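Need residues for this backbone.
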């Protein structure tokens, strides 16, 4: 899985990855750090996923958190 924003310059990205064939639940964490955002402008971020998640409701849950920091 990964995150991207075509409107901003990517500074760094961490791609989450998990491999396994068991039925145990695993949390997958990934992030992107972008620069160039301006106050009052709306940005669109996309989350991408490759592979086949296991069946069941836990496999379809995706929670996204966006945090802006002015340095």
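Answer:
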């Amino acid at each position: 899985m990964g995150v991207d924003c075509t409107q901003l310059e990517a500074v760094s990205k961490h791609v989450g990855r998990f491999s396994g064939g068991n039925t145990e639940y695993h949390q997958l964490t990934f992030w992107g750090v972008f620069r160039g955002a301006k106050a009052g402008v709306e940005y669109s971020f996309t989350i991408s996923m490759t592979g086949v998640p296991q069946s069941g409701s836990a496999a379809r849950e995706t929670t996204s958190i966006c945090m802006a920091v002015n340095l």
